[in-house]
Amino acid sequence: MSQTIELREIETISKSVSESVHEVESLPRRLHDHGDSSQSTAQPTTEDLQENVQTSPKKQAMTARVQFATLCWCLFMAGWNDGTTGPLLPRIREVYDVGFAVVSLIFVFACVGFIGGALLNVPLSDKLGFGKVIVLGSILQVIAYALQAPALPFPVFVIAYVINGAGIAMQDAQANGYVASIKENAETKMGILHATYGLGAFAAPLVATQFAQIDRWSFHYLVSLGIALSNAVTLAMVFRFKGQDECLTAMGQPLGEKDSSEHSKFRQILTQKTVHFLAFFILVYVGVEVTIGGWIVTFIIDVRHGGPSSGYISSGFFGGLTVGRVALLWVNKKIGERRVLYLYTFLAVGLELIVWLVPSLIGGAVAVSLVGVLLGPFYPIAMNHAGRIIPRWLLTGSIGWIAGFGQAGSAVIPFMTGALASKYGIQSLQPL
C-alpha cells in the first residue's frame, strides 16, 4: 500500500517538473510574440500618418486665426476706450463744473497709467508670461469701468483712468509684440490689428454721443464694462495663461533666437537707440491722434456751432483711421514705408489748414475724416519696423516701452491743448 502511494507521488512530481520545463522552453517564443504584438500596436499605420499630416496644419491654421481674432478684439477694446473721451468731454465739463485745464487731467492720469503699465510690462512678462499679463491688463480695464459707471466724484473718476491706462498698456504691448513675432504676412496682420483699433474708436463715439445727451451719461461706461468683460473672458479662454513661445508653437510658428546677453532685459532695452527714437515718434503721433479725436468735437461745437451731434465727427476721424490702415497697405508697399510717411504728413497738414481756415461744418468734417485716413498707417508701420530690427527676445518688452512711453503723448499734447484753450479758446487746437 505504501509503495503504491510513493509511486503516485513520484508520477505527480515528474509531471509537474515536465510542465515547468515546457513553460521555460516556450517562454522566449511567447515573449517574442508579445513583443511583436505590442510593437505592432504602438506604431501608427500609414493611414494614421497621412491623417496627421492633413489635420495638423489645419489645426495650426485654425489656432492662428482664433488667436489673431482674439488679439484684434483686444485692440478693438483699446480703440473703444480712446474713442469714448471726445464726445463725453463737454458733458464731463458740465457735470463736474470744471474748465478746460482741469478736465485735461483725464489725459494726464491716463498717461500715468500708460507709463506705469509700460514699466511693469517687462518684469511681469518675465515672471508671469504672455497669457497671464494680457489677461491681467484686461481685468484692470474691467475694474476701471466699474468705477466710472456710477459717475463717482471727479478725483475717483480720473483715478480710474490710471487703472485703465495700465491695463491698456499691458494688453497693447503683449498684442503688438505677439503679432510682430509672427513671420508670415506680418505687415498685413499688423495693419489689420490696428484697423480693429480704429474700428473700436469709430464705434465708441456713435454710442457715447447718445449717452452725452441724456441724464445717465455715465452709463456709457456700462457698455464699456460689458465689452471689457467679454475681452477678459476671451483672452483667458484662447490663450489659457500660457507663455508666448508656447502659443506661437501651437500655431506652427518656429521659434527664433534666444537671449545670449548677460544683462537684464530692461537694461538691454534701454540701451537700444532705435527703441527711444521709435518711442519719441509714437509719442508725437499718438498725441496728435488723440488730440484731434478728443478735442475736435469741442472745436466743432464752440467754433463751428455744430450742435450736440458733433460727436459723430470724432467717429469720422477714427473711421478714416480704420480705412487708412487697411486700404493704404498697397500704397505703403509700393512707395516704401519710410518715404510714404512724408507724403502722408504733408497731405495731413494741408487738410488741417482747411479745417482751421475754411468756415465750413461739412468741409471740416470731411477734412478731419481724411486726416484720419492719412494718419492711420503711421502706428502699424512703426510696429513693423520694430519687429524687423529689434531682437526677438526683446521685442515684447521694447514694444511695451515704445507704446507706453508713446502714450505719454496722449496726455502731453491734449493737456497742452486744454491749457491753451483755457487761455486763448479752443480755436488754438488747429495751429497747435
Task: Kindly describe this structure.
There is one protein chain. The protein contains 18 helices and no strands. With 432 residues, it is mainly alpha-helical. The chain has one domain: MFS general substrate transporter like domains (Growth Hormone, Chain: A). Helix 2 (46-96) runs antiparallel to helix 12, helix 4 (105-127) packs antiparallel against helix 17 (392-406) and helix 4 (105-127) runs antiparallel to helix 18 (409-424). The chain is globular, with a radius of gyration of 31 Å. This is Major facilitator superfamily (MFS) profile domain-containing protein.
Q: How many separate structural domains?
A: 1
From the helix content, strand content and strand pairing, which structural class follows? mainly alpha
> Considering DSSP H and I runs of 4 or more, what fraction of the residues is helical?
over 70%
H-E order: HHHHHHHHHHHHHHHHHH
Uncertain runs: 1-7, 27-55
Which descriptor suits the 3D outline?
globular
* Rg from Cα: 31 Å
Q: Would you identify the CATH H-level superfamily?
A: MFS general substrate transporter like domains
Sheet of most strands: none
How far is the N terminus from the C terminus?
128 Å
CATH names the topology as Growth Hormone, Chain: A
